[in-house]
Amino acid sequence: MFVCQVCGTFESSLNKLKTHLYCHFEIGELQLPLQCQDCKNSYANLYNYIRHIRTYHSTSISDAARITEATVGNEGNEGEDCEDVDIGDDDCDEASDISDTVAAIQTEGVSMVAALRASSIPYNIIPNIVESFNSVSASVSSAVRSQTLDTLLSAGVSSELVESIKLDLDAKLDNISKPLEFLSTRYKQDRYFDNHSLAVKPESIALGTAICSHSGTSTLSYECFQYVSVEKTLRALLQSKDYVSLLLSDQFDSDILQNYVDGEQSKIHPLFGNKNKLSIMIQLFYDGIGVTNPLRGQSVLHNIGVFFYTIRNLPQRHNSCFANVHLLAVTYTQDIKKYGFDPILGKFVSEINKLSRQGFEGSFPILGQCTMYASLCQVTCDNLALNGILGFIESFSCDYFCTLCYATQEQIQRDFSEDLFEMRTSVSYDNDISEMQCGWGRSHIHCRGVKRVCKLNEIDGFHVTKNWSLDIMHVVLEGIVPYELGCILYGLCHDVNGLDIAVINREIQIFWGKITVDKSHRPLELNRLEQPGQGLVPSMKAIQYWALLKYLPMIIGFRVLPQSGNQHWRFLLHLSHLVDLVFAPRYTHGMVTYLKTVITDHLAMFVELYGDNGKVRLRPKHHLLVHLPRIILNSGPLTGMNCLKYELKNSFFKRSAHIVCNFRDICKSLAYRHQQRALYSLLSKDFLRDIVVVSAQNILPVCTLPFSKLLCETFAVEATDDVAVATKLSVASTLYRKGHFVAVGEDADSGLPQFGVVHSFISCLNSDVWFLVVECATTVDFCAHVHAYRVARPKPTKFFVLRFSDLLDYHPLYGHHTTFPNDVHEHDYIRMPYHVFQP
Fold first, then answer.
1. What domains can you pick out in the chain, each with its CATH number?
2. Rg (CA), the chain
3. Structure pTM?
4. Where are the beta strands (DSSP E) in 94-216?
5. Does the pLDDT at position 687 exceed 90?
6. Contacts by 815-818, CB closer than 8 A, 24 or more apart
């Protein structure tokens, strides 16, 4: 017997099990990747899983099933001889039930086509693949028919009987000859998947009309944008029991700020603050994307603007997943310039007000029959897009550029605390709108930064002056970090003997040859060091700037003596400390107060060190730092507003546009492709971030492992029992290897994080849960000179077993084994990606 992992149903053959699992996949109940219960290997698709079972485990499962069947027969027929029946013979089963074979082929074909449509291949290729699939099936059925008839004739069966059998075979094999005929064309595929219960199809909304001329003929055409219903998307998501569990799993502590719900803004919101209603918090994002080669002429004609959103009820680690970023609308940027944001946002505002006031009813897993509500909690974009969508000026070289206060260019050069700025309020905003409308006929129409009324103000509980949100990816990683690193490295190369651009590049290359994490985030080779205020050359991605800042103190720290008191080095360490605090995943109220002081000190240090005689000025992004503490108190940690998760979608749209190569209505094509990808992600449950994938493992006796006694005590197993052992695995998109350091806890007395070295990964054969076996390490102290923790490995080695959920932070860490000045012994130096503490 073969057992279904989803519902526990017993199937008599492996092919029937495959058909059964495909049925679960089609309704979104099958969780990928699949893990073999016998050897703990993981498989990304059902085909590889079934092939593995057939190759390595079908014999043992059939033998066990035969023994079970015989035992049941003996119990029911005492004293009678029972014959063994090989119920694991797939050929006999399939021959006896031709309808199961057809169903198996069709369900597997549907899964194949769904996976192809979710990828980036051209859709016009898929019908050819389906036709080839049908041709192979027809050839196989024809060969079976011919061989069967030839065998019967060779056996001496009369020709009249053979002719009768031929007619019967033709009738039964007719369905197998073209099993995917219902998916043979693009039209049939679209119709099939659009009618799926979990599919959400984009709809075209007209913005206006335009006259188009082609071949001397002028026609009237509609200019449209593509819109995806929020309600339909939420209904599809809430059909998954696992997704509902995630929505309800985010527990919060009023003393610790971990998510948006912990902030003050959600508590005073008319919907989110009502604990009697099940409400969904929506975070809106907008960005412009160039989908064609920017070096070619007229490339901007096909630039698009995309609106995404995430559900802030989910734990933050899940919202960084590609599948949990949902599409709202796609439009041409030229249409936004022509019609503005209001027509697009108007559709969204109308639907959100309906969802926040009336909600939508349904029967959902775990929740049962209930009414769900949804509303907008905040808007997050890069600085230019945020100002544009909220109706503020989009120039940052003039006064009143900030969406939260009335800052001027001169004021941001001398005031480094939010208390010194006049904050925007709904009353002052209304006054600015009135002043602006009174001067409508003049040029440069804006009043203290306000250009127009934002359509989003019509949403209950939302106002642009209360949109406590800033994107730290653009503000910090792509703005402040390269700007200040350019100043720091220029100063260090002039003050430290033997340090220049060539030495820095060589040390970076050597360091990245040793590092075991962040390998793909390697910074680019620096071309030259510009004068302070010019940044770094060449420009890099945000994640590369972050990696360079994290490891730079360890890379060149041995060349700067601690007793030298170098001001540039001191400022580099202060910048690292500031970024660690900004990217912290959780805060206490005391940390927020401390962050405010750190920001004030940092801006003052920068002006004192590099702003002499006005040579280097603070940029507007420096000013935005002063608002971060209040934003945390109102909206939770800043990582929740980080646009890195939204930028992941850009590559999908660009790649799809290059493959489609048909720009007649590229917005419709990209929106449709995205929704096909969303359907496949929902069916395969890509939104889950706790899936463990093991590529290779060994089955070993417990007694052969150096920590056998610990395993016997932890799992209550015998020394002769077998366990699965792996040296590499992935949890969601995070790869863990043997030799990685992990943060396992926090010392109660010193407050220093405690680390361990990954030795291996263990799972019992009767369980699908994987554990880390970690070698204990001792945190000696925090080495301020290189901004890293100094760690020692005590002897003899002490092991302990952990779940992945027990880790202080999920990031694997690199232990840099070296000796810095004033070290007596060699230690491992560990750089944490941000400040973290035990909640």
1. 2-74+85-194 (no CATH), 203-391+454-466 (no CATH), 396-452 (no CATH), 472-640 (no CATH), 692-830 (2.30.30)
2. 31
3. 0.86
4. 203-214
5. no
6. 815/741, 815/755, 815/757, 815/791, 816/511, 816/514, 816/515, 816/554, 816/788, 818/554, 818/558
